[in-house]
## 1
Amino acid sequence: MASPSPVYLDHAAATPLDPAVAAAMERAQGIAYANPSSQHAAGRAARSVLEDARERILMLLGGRESGPVRDRLVFTSGASEANHLALLGMAAAAAGAGDLFFSRRDHPSVLSAAAAAGRRGWRLREVPLDAASGLAGAAVARAVAAPATRPRLVSLTLVCSQTGSIEDISCVAAAATVPMHVDATQAAGLVPLVFHDLPATTLSLAPHKFGGPRGIGGLLIRGGTVLEPVQAGTQEQGLRGGTEAVVLAAGFARALELAAADRDRVAASVARLRDRLERSLVDVARRGGIEAHVIAADAVRCPHIATVAFPGLDRQAVAMAADLAGVCLATGTACASGSSEPAPALVAMGLSPEIGRAHV
């Protein structure tokens, strides 16, 4: 007798590959098997597939596709690399080291990039998080409001993978003259994005969060922005060396098309399921004499992320018990998997250690 399929509740880490995306990748493989930098006919065919995918993604994300200051899309190995390219690329291109503003709602790759900038002379300025929502935008806006003589650089995470809260990017709009990187990795599949309307200099995402392939990501770059490459090479406009993953790029574009076409319906459906799950967990826990708290419950949240804390219980033990019961869930971001430390955003929000150590 076959084992039942697991209940998969870790879509914030990675989603299953959409069959329509797999089919698009299979078609691309038949055309784009050559190196897209090669000058022969097969290479030109691969280049055509790659650039078609780039244009479709740029259009779907609201980038400026024409004109003297055309926005750019650089393909990377994932959102982590895109975050590094954005922050370190802008830091290296600045007129000297300055202040880099970030928060603990940012992904570990952002924190790693910030630390690398710190080793290069940048002063790291961690901003506090709102205790109820876990948002950083208002604190960032206050921090950059004062005049400065040093270069400044801002990192904001649109949807926090630790709480699900959606950042109010508009509150930082007054600081639009400050170069700002937005990590939209958790947002791209369920939150409408119009890059040209955002006060963002760069924006990162990866398609494995919305039914696309793993191993590829993208960085949108505002027209006229200068970045220094982190991994130099002739490919990707000189900003990311290495032969491009053409088939993955085709899958990226198709996944984004599918997500955009059905976004509103899916977001509403997932939000209803999340709310139902949270109510059920809290109700069942309390009937069993277990305290339960939904983190950032009153904040505006992306529908696919729910964080529930059970003070007094060990979160790793809860995750292991769930796994044995056929339920896949996480106790933090996948990139911090296995860590016994509480989620950094929850600590920065000032939640009690009991709650911080007991969330899933």
## 2
Amino acid sequence: MSVIINPILKGFNPDPSIIRVGDDYYIANSTFEWFPGVQIHHSKDLQNWKLITRPLNRLSQLQMEGAPDSCGVWAPCLSYNKGIFYLVYSNVKSFAGVWKDTPNYLVTTKNITGDWSDPIFLNASGFDGSLFHDDDGRKWYLSMRIDHRKGKMFGGIILQEYDMDKKKLIGPVKFIFEGSSLGLTEGPHLYKKDGFYYLITAEGGTEYGHAATMARSKNIEGPYELSPIHPFISSRENDNYYLQKSGHADLVQTQDGKWLAVFLTARPTTSRGLCILGRETSIETVDWPTNEWPVLGSGNSLPRVEVPINNAATNGMYELTTKDDFNTPELNINFQSLRIPITEEWASLKTRPGFLTLVGRDSLSSKYQQSLLARRIDSLNMEASTCLDFSPETFQQMAGLVCFYNTAHFHYLHVSANDEGKRCIQVITHDHFEPFEAYQEPVCLPDEGVVFLKATLNGADLQFHYAIKENEWI
């Protein structure tokens, strides 16, 4: 028996939705304000995963320009039925104030790595939409319900039928589940087993109280009985556990009839401190006897870091590509932009072969037209470097290497110019929108030639370097 090491998708891969099609497993994850939208990874052994597509790759499917930080694409639900892949997603427009703008859409395809359809609007009464294909051929949409009254927001789970021919929701909206005492009920998924409809939801908020809850009913419309194994998944009672914030789960059945759960987790730099990698995806086996409640293979609600499993490869690891010389016709799939598509107009591999040419536009504080290409980091011990050819003329022109969380939080090592037009280097930190410059006076650079830039991360400690000659780091 082999062992899977959690997390299986490291670095900003939250809200996993998993399916199996034959011998192939697919996981879809939230991407928030990053474009293209939704990451889909593929695996045959459940340990080694490869990013194969981001299906929301054109403006007709996803418009996020101006979207606030951490809005955009939330909690995609990937499903498969009779030769068609279905993807439900929220494109959150606003999340502050009394009301929330959370339109939900459906796209489909017969080829998961091919083009997906233009979106079908479903509703905007909540977020975290999900599609369930019942064995009688009917399809059901469910989501959390937003209740703005008295600041409640989380108003339980709703259900409505989806009509494939009419391409819209039909019939009455049914309120099926209020949630447990953990509250903040969201992220619903439905399954049918042994005559029961099983409903899994995320609860307890997305911080250290996070959890996944299980309920079931003989009738799809409820009432749903809460599982005595409650919560189904959580690390909320274990302050120093390696996998924190465990919750927001989805289930899949393997080829031999066994069950697995995927769910989000996070790895803080200190005990319940900051999770600078974002929320990640982990996996656990599920024991599910006939007519009984499911329980994690760990025997309790706490997921294991090392998970024994029959069809996994031995100690495979998920890794990002380590180097890019920008000498291919297409940009590496690991890169994303903020809110808008990557186009030749501002990010070109053709202008200067062997280089990525970026055209300056909005600042790092903008939510509109930035010239920023980024990729996830997947380890708390990491080194990233680049070579920059840039000749600014004023202090308002800058380019460089940024460690970016959102518009309120980043560290930016950049080349610019001083009042005399001489090249210089500086570090700007943005902490809760408060700016800080590392040097009282920027460090002067030679007027010509490339500059090497490097960031080294060790837990919560970030060190920047620069070099005029390759590998002679300062």
